[in-house]
Amino acid sequence: MKIKAISIWQPWASLIAVGAKQYETRSWATSYRGPLLICAVLTGSRLGTKEYWHLLGTIGDNPFWTVLRFSLEHPTVLITPDDIWRNLPFGQAVAIVELTDCFQITVNRCGKSLMQEIGSQEFIFGDFRRDRYAWKLENVRAIEPFPVKGRQGLFEVELPKGIEI
């Protein structure tokens, strides 16, 4: 069975998979609505390597690391950003979501009013500048990661046996 898919940089792909990120922001809109496979790109963040995330702060005060830490099996164990980065899946599908909406961020729907609508954590996890698009992701279901060759834009992936839409 084929499913529409999108490639997303880490750690955002994993934030979606754990249900912490409910909007994906893009420079382009889509009219597609329905099941969407979230695929983590093969390389590190385009913003830099794991060292970039160290600049954001420690686990105690960084929403990225805090959310990902609590998504792991033993959240009471001290886990460093290096530990988390090493355990993130790269070049793999990580979740199936339902893409339910896509709206343009406009002068009337931006800044503080939009942050109140979507929440401050969500605002940190996306690029909500004016004239970008916010894709609403619902019904998130983490899946057993499997390798996917990512592409730009929306593309189709054949789901392995045992994974249902």
Task: Tell me what the structure shows.
With 165 residues, the chain is α+β, with helices and mostly antiparallel strands. The protein has a domain at 2-22 and 33-102 and 136-148. 25% of the residues lie in helices and 30% in strands. The chain has helices at 12-17, 50-55, 63-71, 81-87, 111-118, 120-124, and strands at 2-8, 23-26, 34-40, 92-104, 133-147, 155-158. A six-stranded mixed beta sheet has the order 2-5-4-3-1-6.
What is the residue-mean pLDDT, rounded to a whole number?
81
Helix content: 10-25%
Q: What overall form do the CA principal axes indicate?
A: globular
Total strand segments: 6
The termini sit apart by 9 Å
* SS field, number of helical segments: 6
Question: Which structural class should the secondary elements be placed in?
Answer: alpha+beta
Q: What integer value in Å does the Rg equal?
A: 16 Å
Which H/E pattern describes the elements?
Answer: EHEEHHHEHHEE
Low-confidence stretches: none
Topology:
Layout: E1 2-8, H1 12-17, E2 23-26, E3 34-40, H2 50-55, H3 63-71, H4 81-87, E4 92-104, H5 111-118, H6 120-124, E5 133-147, E6 155-158
Parallel strand pairs: 1-3
Antiparallel strand pairs: 1-6, 2-5, 3-4, 4-5
Relevant terms:
alpha+beta, 6 strands, 6-stranded mixed beta sheet, globular, 25% helix, 165 residues, 6 helices
Summarize the structure.
With 165 residues, the chain is of the alpha+beta class.
